[in-house]
Amino acid sequence: MNPIFQHQQQTRRQFFGKSATGIGGAALASLLGGNSAVGAGGGNALPGFPNHVAKAKRVIYLMQTGGPSHLDLFDYKSNMYGLHGENIPESVRAGVRLSTMTGSYKDHPVLRPLKKFQQNKKSGMWMSDLVPYTREISDKICLINSMNTEAVNHAPAVTFFLTGHQLPGRPSMGAWMDYGLGSASEDLPGFVVMLSRDRENSCGQLFYDYYWGSGFIPSKHQGVKFRSQGDPVLYLSDPKGLSRGMKKGMIDDIASLNREHYEDVADPEIETRISQYEMAYRMQTSVPELTDLSNEPQHILDMYGPDVHRPGSFARNCLQARRLAERGTQFIQLMHAGWDQHNNVPTQLEVQCRDTDQPSAALVKDLDQRGLLEDTLVIWGGEFGRTPFGQGDINNPQKHGRDHHGAAFSMWMAGGGVKAGEVHGQTDDYAYNVVDKKVHVHDFQATVMHLLGIDHEKLTYRFQGRRFRLTDVHGDVVKDILA
Asked: Which of 358, 354, 288, 287 is nearest to 318 (CA)?
């Protein structure tokens, strides 16, 4: 190192960055409340985490963006068939925020469920004929019919669920988990994201990188997006003429330079750079093996449905999620678009369910038969539901739909310490408002963190003079759904 630079006056950033055993150590002790126990998530977990015995070691989040219609799928209201076309009373609708698309409506006619509901004899749950495979596994899931959010538009609502705030810029749930618990796998990322959408591209929703971003915590905790075409991860393959040995030598040399730079400025992003170069090198072996389905038995492929053979499909991603879970990845986020049915409920909802119902149920069964469901939390749900009243001309058999609805909607969980065969919460006779056991977005997040062994009030990160957490300053663990 050049001695001239070695003895230069330190900047304020350098002083604080190098004070890990002084001011930095005191801040860390304050953050952890003096608890120095090593967590069980991974060798690089924060000291003191997990805070209690975890029920779930990993999460597979099947995020259904666009807003699945709770009234058409999970929240059975037998009276709604007879009320079709009648206006929902003002007393029911009062105070509920709607989007600008229907906020000025004078009439709010009931739109009956698209298909009939049937009851699972074992669990007693009622579910639509649109989701027969999910109904078949209802004895393994906990159905929450009392979800609630303030958001009424897609991007803010998805951001709220995944980061705890409607504006982008905060760490995502998977990043928080990776930050607190570390990674259990040396050869694969601890947080992986896969994307899919309906074949018809029926809605124009976009997937933003901040849905799986790390916000203001070190960027090594952000989700790694697996692609469906070409290399699953960009630049995974070596350029022609470059051997593995040459590649390893280059990475080692770059790491040495980065470490020397880190000694000067103590920027945590440099550490991220070092670790990600090394992870990328290891992934050159682990990822091709992960994505090769040739060793999957035919009966397993059949269980996920015919779409499992199509790269980039939701079915294919569900199977890949199981394979990732087996190999130590702890947070797997599948995002599927296509549920935004404003004027095409009679046609597109059935298509969407056909794409997602069978593989979602297959994932739960597959994990269960491998002994993984017990400590894997599977989550299925969107950012909000759909209005019980119709949007457009409900007498047109092809062209009508439902608007966004955040006051009440449904989602389900399976495994990972939640009750099986349980229905939690209740809505009113119109499935418009929650009347019993409301679960807010922050309550949902607090519960997921609790199942992972994390006290959501203790996992914080100091940024711009304030300690931030996933649940902001809200959230209560929903104890009634815990097994």
From this structure: 358
